[in-house]
Design brief:
The structure holds two protein chains of two kinds.
Chain A: E1 3-5, H1 8-20, H2 22-28, E2 33-40, E3 48-55, E4 58-64, E5 73-78, H3 79-92, H4 101-106, E6 111-114, H5 118-121, H6 123-126, H7 128-136, E7 143-145
Parallel strand pairs in A: 1-7, 2-5
Antiparallel strand pairs in A: 2-3, 3-4, 5-6
Chain B: H1 13-23, H2 104-113, H3 124-129, H4 134-162, H5 170-194, H6 206-216, H7 221-246, H8 250-280, H9 285-303, H10 306-317, H11 322-350, H12 355-358, H13 361-371
Helix pairs in contact in B: 2-5, 2-8, 4-5, 4-6, 4-10, 5-8, 6-9, 7-8, 7-9, 7-11, 8-11, 10-11, 11-13
The chains are: A alpha/beta, B mainly alpha.
Amino acid sequence: MPLRFPSLAFFEALQREMRTERERFARLGFFDTTFGIRVLPEGAGAAAEFVLAFEVFDCVRVAEGLAGVETDFIAEGSFSAWREMLDNIHALGAADAAHSFNTLTHFGERLSLRYEDPDRHDKAYRFAESIQEFFDLSSRLAFDYLDGTRPPASREPLRRTAT
Amino acid sequence: MSYLSTTDFAEDQAFVDRFRRTMRGDLELSWMDVPREEAACRPQNERRGLTFRDLDVGSYGFTEMPERIRQNRSFAPRGAVLPPGLPDLQAEVNRKSEVWAYNIEGYYEEAMTRQWNATTDIPWDELQRTELPEEIGKAYAQLLTFLTEVEMIATDVPAKWMGSLNADFFEVKNFIATQAMDEARHTEIFRKRALSTGYGLMRASAHNEFNLKFLRDADTFAEASLALHLQAEGMVLTLFRFSEYISPTEGDKKLFRLVMQDEARHVGYGMQHLKWVLDHFPERRALIHDHLDEAENFVFGGGYATEVVEPFIILSGKGLKKEQIAEGVRITNAFQLKQIEEYFERLAKCGLPERRERSRLWKLVDMNREAIGNLAPAPGLQA
């Protein structure tokens, strides 16, 4: 059965990819935050919700549902907004200038960050590069969307690091 | 050489005799049996390593540290036995609530693991292959000039205070040492980026420098921290996020993500410090408001000066055509509103909700709201 976005299996696959890149994430430093992902349906229906918990250099927990879960912030957007980000990453190997996580969430135009506590919300920025590189790992996944379509095939990957 | 020893050791017979006996093998060993607290600290989380939090035991730790440090006036590390005759270094800050922050030890460990390198972590070759249109390149170079100017003073301020804190506050001293390094790296990266755009550094800002002088010349560490960590860096954090948003290339986006990480950590310290002050030294509240009154005046003058705002308008509108400027004004307005809203949010969370009503920055918010048009502020700010 193919990997599908949004699903718990999709985020578990990202968690596995992160574990194969321990050295890269260790170099970025301690990464201690728990945040939520909320994918809103285009029409009627319930949102798909997931929680991602990071500790030290690892994604230590991936689970479905946000009810009763304490998070630093929740990244929320329509399915099409998430799809746009993932398509871009899949095609280029990493988000381009128009599709970085900060750019998409900054004014809440495509994705938005929901939060109660501004100090905890700031973890989205304290760990900005780790979060971006985590999402960029989705370029390695073979997956499809709910409607059975797939992200575009990979083109030449962007190179964001000097070494 | 203003400080001279009260002893000429080479002429002090007792000192010389003792040294000679030691070097003949006649050891005194009085230091070996001094009564002290033994410690064998271990990592609570082995994946994280041995942290300052793991060392928070007994007299070595920070939990039992008193509010006023009356005993240690020297360089002696906290928990060491203090022999008679240690010099009084006359540290300017000896009260814990003037410097301490909840989770200070955590911010330090995070800072140490999240260091990066402006020379090797940015794809400079890729950036140099990207040619920017002239008006974008010049606007970006002006923004980078402003940021280089800002980050230099942000290096000087923590460095200036480091030696003024009592040695028992070493977690804070270590943290602000990492901050000085972070800010030095920011000065480095903004200068390097400015000099790699093809345009070089543009014009310094007098208005901005009045603000920077105010930050540097704070009378107390608590005032310096309030204005630097919370007010200035809080606003600069929003500015870095906005700069990432309007950055023209992926390499520039990475640059701003890396600097925003450091800045957000400094803001975290500032917030947790202000919370600590209000919890443990509540009589400071009036002084805090007085200092913010003046800090906000400087912010308005410095942060909204022509040479600071116009590059944002050009970069966010992506050019100098009439419709591009209109779009740039709209987006820059939204940024300024967000910047001020986030500043008040942070202060409220620290225990200063009344700042919203007292602050004159509301005038600016009202001006921005009138001008903002249809671009909605971030939904997270609407609550």
